[in-house]
Amino acid sequence: MNGSNIVQYVVVRSDLIKSLEWPVGAVIAQACHAVTAVTHLFYVDEHTQRYLEDLDNMHKVVLEASDEKNLIGLKDKLEENNVKHKLWIEQPENIPTCLVVKPYPKEDIQKYFKKFKLFKT
Hints:
A hairpin with a 4-residue loop joins strand 3 (85-90) and strand 4 (95-101). Strands 1, 2, 3, 4, 5 and 6 form a six-stranded mixed sheet that branches. The protein has five helices and six strands, in the order βαααβαβββαβ. The longest helix is centred in the first third of the chain and has 18 residues, at 24-41. The protein has a single domain, classed as 3-Layer(aba) Sandwich (Bit1). It is α+β, with helices and mostly antiparallel strands.
């Protein structure tokens, strides 16, 4: 089995741009921080290693949570189901901005993200 069915979900709060008027670049940076952190935290994981074997063909799905409440609700659901992830909290403001799961086989993980839409500005 190669890494072709392995996916990484990135969920970013859309209200950061739409309501709180953060610059798009700052929001993208939040996602980058979270992806880097989860890759570091779960680097030795079998699926992470398989995902990193073919850097030119990594599959990420970037979704939006409408606000902090929805992002925290996702975090809680993932924790209940032992899904490994990283909730990025911007400091020093202590604002949850983005959640990223470690790479997983798509069929094992996609059910947790069905209610989220693709991220758009």
